[in-house]
Model the fold of this input.
Amino acid sequence: MQFRLKFAVSLLLAIIFFSNSYLASAEEVCIYRNEKGETFSSPSKRQIPHKYRRNATCGDKAKFNTLAAPTEIELEGSTRNVTIPSSLGSIEARWPRSAEKFFRMSPNKALATAANATAKAINQAGFRRRMQNTDLSWKVVFLDANMPETQIPFYLLQNCHPGWMTPPANIYIVAQRVARGCAGEQASDDSLHDKSVADSGLAETVVHEMGHVVEHQLLSSNSPDRLRSEGFATWFEIYAARLHGSLDRTSIEMRTNELASISIKSTPNNFYFQGSGSDYSRAAMYFLAVEKQGGAIAIANLYDVMNERKIDLFAAIHNTLHWNRTRLEAEVKSLL
Done:
């Protein structure tokens, strides 16, 4: 009897221990939005302002850090599904019809425009023969403001990026962020001028994300380097716009130069990439400087060298053009 009692007590203590361990590891978090559509997190529902509690989503913190595949993203309301043939491979896209109100151009037209511009850019620059795969299976999803909190990591919900990409060719575009920016404001849903601007932004955003896919194909090591990858994708936007009349080349170049100038004036001697718009533009200037010196083929050569020697962007520039960092920064400033 005494043995049974000791065993029961031990078993109970073990259950309590493992339960507490599970509860400690299964940390809860709640995600909620305010009336402006801004996203916030809270460690518990009780700490959320009362008026936002009803629409809050709570659960294990781990599940809020997982990005679902484009085909698995849950879209609210009526949706559209299209398949677009292209020289880059078949593009499967889906979106809620509510996302269409921000644009005159339909998302599938923006995709076709971006795919054509991307194809021209990779052929002209000599990228195609260097890419690991030129016949990709593209999966694209357009989202509106009502993004599913449990399928998209919190940092993507909270930041203002209008799009993102995951290998090999998955693209996510947030329509409202493209059309209305971080503040979520625009003159009106019915303004043709605003929608025309939004159309340009939509095609440019898709080209940027397709640029990430191209770079992923070019770089066999795929070592993470946000300065390099965002610099390349931003440069790729500019390069594609020069070749495709549907993209607003002048606007893209002016914006890139202005933002890069702001970054350089702020920190002329030290550049630490932190992910701001000005950081993207300043990173692109390194690629523009290389292109000015040797054409777009010089960009392709950089990736050949990075692959062969397993070195980073700046080492590859030094290896191919014999520019140290001081010379490179001087070349960037001369562009501005």
